[in-house]
Amino acid sequence: MTELKYISGFGNECASEDPRCPGALPEGQNNPQVCPYNLYAEQLSGSAFTCPRSTNKRSWLYRILPSVCHKPFEFIDQGHITHNWDEVNPDPNQLRWKPFEIPKASQKKVDFVNGLHTLCGAGDIRSNNGLAIHVFLCNTSMENRCFYNSDGDLLIVPQKGKLLIYTEFGKMLVQPNEICVIQRGMRFSIDVFEETRGYILEVYGVHFELPDLGPIGANGLANPRDFLIPVAWYEDRQVPGGYTVINKHQGKLFAARQDVSPFNVVAWHGNYTPYKYNLENFMVINSVAFDHADPSIFTVLTAKSVRPGVAIADFVIFPPRWGVADKTFRPPYYHRNCMSEFMGLIKGRYEAKQGGFLPGGGSLHSPMTPHGPDADCFEKASKAKLAPERIADGTMMKLSSSFKTELQSMGQLSLSNTLLLRLHLKR
Ligand SMILES: [Fe+2]
């Protein structure tokens, strides 16, 4: 695979054209009477036309055929996704999942879309207010199929196996310990190279932002320059047998046929794009005196609600770092809080749970449900000599990262009942 190129920066106004078609990007206007190379101009809006400049998002795509050239959408099999949070009785217990099983390619071919399973969620998809957490469990590339989500942004966290993601804006390679965000409406198709697994945080109706830094200052946590945007790439590919565009609309799946690949955008410009980020670039802030800062210091991206300081969801990581606090119980403190916390593990082991929480699994702690280190961890940490120590280094791998999402405003995360996976109550 030749190395892919990217544009660096978060939320910038960018412009890109496939080098095979120099001059494809119109100059001085968005919608010429005739575009260079007779391309079609198409705007993709990620915000209301009238949003303030600071939140206004749109891109102009110059493509071989407009997206509208497709047959009507039809309702299709819904697989394992849902947005109905009333299917299962609520459960305030701490819940933990073993690693979600990936189907064997020798038994059944499953691609990214067929392999989507909704775990839990909250809020209301129709009023664009809430979120869902899914896992994807697949073993086969999407073949002449693409997907787009009309309901919100998808933050994709591969845990096992890399993803080659074709988008209308170009190609991205996303490996475990990297994340990517495919924003609302963007078409994409995913190639995989082995039995592949990962997590998805979907937020309805809002976009992910970098958190404000307050007194931290202008630098730190996830720095804007480390976010990478694909460069324009197109294929002029006819698909005589039909290309399938799958759409998630109001939580339901629909499919439409067309005769060409949707990845026919020769040039684009704008500030509404997919992007990826390597979690190794996260600059960790922590206490260097005593006690803990709250885990919000580990926020990579946030999806803000309309209440100041309160997120619909925060994407938070616990990366490898030094622990140096004096006279302090160093593992995460016991606590109860007003948020739901879903946690996944990319690799290594989670510092507060020395056994039983494995990469590719998950846990859910509901609002005000008590949680904290297990008894062994408490014993050891209470007696430990407090020297500087590495935290969260993996046992097999150099790096380990766990992530969790925190829900602050949408009430409680409710479980889906579509997931035919093993659910374990932790005692
Ligand atoms: Fe917690």
From TrEMBL:
Q: Where does Fe cation bind?
A: H335, E341, H371
Occurrences of domain Homogentisate 1,2-dioxygenase N-terminal (ranges): 5-279
Q: Which residues form the Homogentisate 1,2-dioxygenase C-terminal domain?
A: 281-410
Q: Which UniProt keywords apply?
A: Dioxygenase, Iron, Metal-binding, Oxidoreductase, Phenylalanine catabolism, Tyrosine catabolism
The active-site annotation reads H292 (proton acceptor)
Catalyses which reaction?
Answer: homogentisate + O2 = 4-maleylacetoacetate + H(+)
Q: What does this protein do?
A: Catalyzes the conversion of homogentisate to maleylacetoacetate.
Instruction: Identify its protein family.
Output: Belongs to the homogentisate dioxygenase family.
Q: List, alphabetically, the NCBIfam families matched.
A: hmgA
The name this protein goes by in its record = Homogentisate 1,2-dioxygenase
| Organism of derivation | Ovis ammon polii
